[in-house]
Give the backbone structure.
Amino acid sequence: MSSPRTIAALDVGSFKICCFIAEARGPGKVRVTGMSHQASAGIRQGMVVDMDAAQQAISSAVHSAEQMAGSQVHEVVVSLTGGQPRSQVLRREMTIGGGAIKDMDVRRLLHDCRGSATLTDSMLIHAVPVGYSIDGSPLTPDPRGMHGQTLGVRMTVVSAAESAVRNLLTCVARCHLEVRDLVVSPYAAGLAALVEDERDLGTTIVEMGAGTTSLAVFYEGAAIHTDVIPIGGRHVTNDISQGLHTRIDHAERLKTLYGNAIRSSNEDREMIDVVQIGEDPDATPQQVPRSHLNGIIAPRIEETMELVRQRLDKSGVSGLAGQRVVLTGGAAQLPGLRELAGQILDKQVRIGRPLRISGLAEATGGPAFATCAGLLMFAVDDRGEARSAQAQKAPANGSLFGRLGGWFRENF
């Protein structure tokens, strides 16, 4: 039996920063040995807005996880939500002359396809081969050894604003950590929360974070589309704060204890205490009907789900997205959200949690931690990514993001 390899995942969110450290013996064999999550700081809508505050929060999360795991980490797989990640589907074909398809043929095709991506003011994050075709045949996951005149590939490419990516890389580097890989949040969440049939038959993962709601469409085992909406759970909290004239922390507490995405007339008789902004701590709280609170929450959730539906309709892949939606992220835990999402999206909806990873505590096994768990899954199996020539030649589970490695060497 091979000795375990230590891997680390860092989910940098607008509400919390989470670090998982795990031992891996290969795909599907991951055991978490250390974990920590801290309140986020210096991050807004997935982007670094205060370098010092973000650095301190990241360092604290990683240090606590290291203490629990009893080991020190030097590189991490990091989630990416900011920078408006966008995806495009590329297709490329080349003549191979009828012989058996070799590794070099596949590498050359992937290099040509990746090079045709439009990356103006953006950085390449993912280049995932969805499948290969031989002489126009249906897609196959591995064409090597087969014979044909032409070889084609369909590839999903995800890019994000270069400035947002570099700010995140700089922040992590200042914590004396190297970024082994960047993974867009919904892609990571899908790796953790979807079962194999869902990834194959077509499923949309909707990752509902504090600052953003991001989505990824999986089909035939691969992510074929990603998108992000700049609305998240923090916007709901802000709406409550403004609508009920209460502090942000109290608004978050009201949302957690009494919130529901579906309004009900039965809630008119249930009163809740609301501490007004600026009031003396000993003053009597104002009482408002619970229906008033949920009358503030529901419109924002409805708006978010409508935007998800519109983005899917415009994506060009709605026909492949299937009839299933899996919700992950901290905001997905709001009661009534699953039912409301099902009504608006007209699909079967379930709440997703990390699967196939051992060692998670009950408190870290929910939808809020799907992205961090998925980063560990990506660390042991990058699913044939073809982002650089270096990655194509390296072993699948040990490839490095070539541009990241070069950038680190130049700047740190």
Notes: Residues 133 and 222 are 16 Å apart (CA to CA).
